[in-house]
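Data availability (excerpt). All sequences and predicted token strings are deposited with the supplementary files. A representative entry, Phosphoserine aminotransferase, is shown inline so that the format can be inspected without opening the archive.
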Amino acid sequence: MTRHYNFCAGPAALPTAVLERAREEMLDYQGRGLSVMEMSHRSDEYVAIAEKAEADLRELLNVPSNYRILFTQGGATQQFAAVPWNLLGPGGTANFIETGIWGKKAIQEARHLFGAAHVAASSAESGHVAVPRQQDIALSSDAAYLHFTPNETIGGLAFDYLPHTQREDGIEVPLVADLSSSILSAPLDVSRYGVIYAGAQKNIGPAGLVVVIVREDLLDRARDDMPTLFSYRQLAEAGSMINTPATYSWYLAGLVFDWLKNDVGGLDAMDAINQRKSDKLYAAIDGSALYSNPIAPINRSRMNVPFVLADSRLDSDFLVEAEQAGLLNLKGHRSVGGMRASIYNAVPEAAVDALVAFMNDFEQRRG
Ligand SMILES: *Cc1c(COP(=O)(O)O)cnc(C)c1O
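Structure token line:
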């Protein structure tokens, strides 16, 4: 059996050690005689799995005690609706910083549901090659919160700072972050955020699960007229078990958290590895005449590295030969074309080394 290097943007690579452990425990979980997939979510065994996952995530991200962690479903896309439903009081407007496709989708959903969304800043004019600076962010006078996308997965554009959220009247509104593609890639100061959410399929585990971290005082803002399953307050009260949660995805996420803590050595160690990986790949791109990446250096994503070939007629050969070399899923998003290498936590440094060697070799032969 060979596991190739997988650069997929999502669902993405999982750590081999995690998959091996899941395989060992697949048919008979720790001598209980059944698979985790077959357990009641109310059983003592499963509740212990769920609680350990939460405790490990809390420890990894140093989540303060006045924040609740929810394990919910519906993808990050469902949170585009859940966030305004939970945080928009009467009269308030959702505010956004738009830096690419995912942020735009969040804006569209808030507009669709509530009739209004204020774009406080956007990098659209620059073609999303640099994020707006703090002085360019103009909150509306009735802003209820400010939503942003710290790492735009498709464009490969990342914030290099945390936006301040003070309105003109001095009120500081909650900062909301869609961290789907960069959570757990480096330490995070959770206390600076009101809500963090992340679809699991990039840096947490299998698709189907979404992790939400919400400051406790915001739970009271939830509207009464929203669907029960969207309500942060009700999810928190029920320990994320209003209905059957995504039990197996939650278990696998727990294995990933355990791997990050005990195999990798925590988020400082992960951060250093991710820095090395992305430095190597951008250096290869910048040092070549064939490959290029348009993003301002301080806003380059360390997780998603898009690049184009100087001659797009070489694209299909590049992809075919990469696949033959065991380098999978390098095709760029259908909306932008070119290539994209997603180098999430579970993509080892050796994968980046192999990719760089392939890119150099391809350029020498075909560039
Ligand atoms: C992948 C992604 C999404 C969409 O996630 P789904 O789980 O497919 O809804 C949203 N935002 C960001 C930043 C993403 O990377």
